[in-house]
Design goal:
With about 800 residues, this protein is mostly helical. The protein folds into 3 domains: about 5-80 and about 625-795, 3-Layer(aba) Sandwich (Rossmann fold), CATH 3.40.50; about 85-120 and about 375-620, no CATH class; about 120-370, no CATH class. The protein is about 55% helix and about 5% strand.
Length: about 800
Amino acid sequence: MSSEQTADRSGGAALELLVHGVGGATPQEMLADPYTVRITGDETAAIYRRPDDEDAESHPERYEDGPVPEAYCWSNLTSGNASRALWLLLLPFMVVNLAHWMRPATNGLARTQRLYGVLVRLLALTLTVLLTAAACEVALDLVAWQCAGSAGCADDRSWLGFLSATGDGWWAQPGRRLALAALIPAALVGLLWYLSNRTWSAYEAQRPPTDAGPGGSPRDPDTEVVNTPGVPDSRDAADAYRPALARPGFWYGRRLVARLRAAHTAAGFLTVAGAVTGAAARYDRGASSAARETVGWLLQATLVAGALVVLWVVCSRGRSERKRDGSLDKALVSRLPAVSLALVGVAVVYAAWSRPDWVSSGTLPGAVTFSVLTIAQGVLVVGLATAALALHRRAPHARIALYGLGGPAVAMLACALAGVMTGGVAQRVGDWLDGSGTPGMGEGTIAGPPVLLSWQAAVIPVLLVLLVIPVVVLAVRTVRTGRRLAPVVEAEYGSREAKVTPDSVRTRRIAGARARAQLTDAAPWLVGLVSGAALLLGTGAVVGAWLSGDVPGRAAEGGPALIQSIADTAQALGSWLIGFGFILFVTWGRRAYRDASARRTIGILWDVGTFWPRASHPFAPPCYAERAVPDLTWRMASWTARTGGRLVISGHSQGSVLAAAAVWQLREGTRHQVGLLTYGSPLERLYGRWFPAYFGAAPLSDLGREVHCWRNLWRATDPIGGPVRLDADGPAVDRGPLKDPLAYGRTERHPLPEPILGHSEYQADPVFAEERAALLDRLPPALPEQRDGTATAERRTG
């Protein structure tokens, strides 16, 4: 460990805390030194310095020309774990979790805000049930019920021989085949529970550091309360308003994730138990066994009661951010998974009850589940859109994405993605078991998946065709924008460089980079278009399934010949496409498991999608910010308290979001010693537009007033970063657009062609060092403090 722990306070100490962006970076790259030393942290996330800077606090005279650089590397929180690549298959869970945080900013309407959160949590619950139902469809219906019940299908597959209905084995009865197959979806639910519990222990269940300022005593995080708007903060009377990201419980989602995990696990197990019980109970109602019929009714009633309890658990409580809630739910909630698993066991025993006359034919009873789930998701999305519009109308914001409908649009995308994956996988497995050379035609030995899933598979090619239209429009618009910007580029560089000879190739490249960077601003209407199309196509799939009747495996059976031909072709294409997509997922996952660079590329998805805590779906990838933000906050607070020095936290891209979130968590006395430098930052361009309640105009303006000094650098060629656009009465924060490239042609200072940097290498611009030095100059000079850590009154009131 460095001598920083025992160093005296130094009035000349200054520190630059570097935070990298998406995709990760090594400490060697960040510090421009092949040799680095870990100052604090572990293999997952740590702070590094150059060897010569390890004891910088003891020799402040060496750093009169600049701050001591140290790097916070957090890439292993997202892309470092090889198994994380396989979580691509749970992408809908991550997407629906984002919808929770896209709530429009508003004043009042507390009930509508709560309703918004409840609707998102219910949507997330339907996704868990849909995933489990899809697993039941494949394992119970297609394999155990249809294929094993058909001599033509089972005889062609030796691994199904012991389940074949034509044999005399113990497993030949349909109920026993279903009981055995139920172990597969039950194991899937158990795996999701295990992954969620493991990541919960590593992230949400990790107690954050107590908020002890310089000279202060630690407070109990379980009893510390933060104010509501307009009420003084109990932590610091000088603060009259604390934004959501400044609340002490924001990065501590221990209780909610545990509660949701119990409910979703129980919902999965109840879905499995319901699939097994429903088929057996339906047969028993037509049989002559009163005892079995009674048991079936009692078991189904118990499952319904369990489902009602799950709904109550999901709807009754949301996030608690006003305090660090360290408690967990007792009794009923914590026992839900165990009770539900026991019901699965009872259902398996009930289904295995001997029924010699039971014969499986057609599809497994319960195919209506998919129609009910699809309709419920559509109703919930419409309700979510209504709530979002009401919130947005109360406090409209010109820069918000899709007029406040960003959350419902993203939630619709999650449902559409889950539906397409469900329908495509079921259709592909059905085609594989069918053995037919024409996928989806239902001409083989089994009936195939429910007709709704066939329609959902048929939707895939249509959705891809619809995506081509906006892509072509954006491509044409980008080309036209590049041509329009060409004379602007030449005029701009001509005014900066005395002798500039126009170069059409160079001009086109610079103008094209600026035009392509503007594509990011078109994302809202593109998402809205895709979401609207998904909603319409999903409605069409439900209507088509209803019109087709109970004809599994055919998307338009009984309709006009032309429509049936088109539907069959789309269904076949969709089946093959989802099969190709599944192979692509597996291949990508295997490559990421072996290749660190590929793992880092996939990690970029998690860098953006898992910044937010798991507020709606517990099976989503974990929130890395619940580790990174406390790390940064604690480092800034402890270093300034120990040394009394000035600190600039320097964040690039996603690192700027982490830096801002960490500054929000600081006490006022510590913020007085901290400057914020952001570059290539998506704070307003992406987060402000899509998450207005947390990074909108009002929260960012509050941050600009709360932090002692802040500077934001941006380029016109950057597709991610942009200005933060604070209120006119707020501090001047933005500087840009920076010159990119630094020189149009060859100059004496730049004899070789300068690259177009776009989103990278902001430190290469001379403006970066200039603004960093200006921030340090604006920070108040360090003051001597007592060795016991008591802050001087001058700093506390400065």
